[in-house]
Amino acid sequence: MGGCQILQTDGGPEFGGEFEERVREYALRHRMARPYRKNEQAFVESFHRTLRKECGGWGKYRRGELEEVQGEAERYLHYYHYQRPHLA
Fold it and tell me: Which residue, 58, 37, 44, is CA-closest to 9?
């Protein structure tokens, strides 16, 4: 079962198909942010910007680097949720 209550994404085409089928492995529920609702998209975009800035950078990765990049992202998410100071 998943590691979080809700996984929120925007309405991009990459979040359909196989992604939609596998989302239950990581979250209890998948929620699509409604378009043109400034606060909903802002949270998702802010998180993605922080993730790229502090963890993955803006580079492109090769398919062979997937395991390494996934491990790095998982370590960063643990840090983000449990150790990183937040403004709230």
Answer: 44
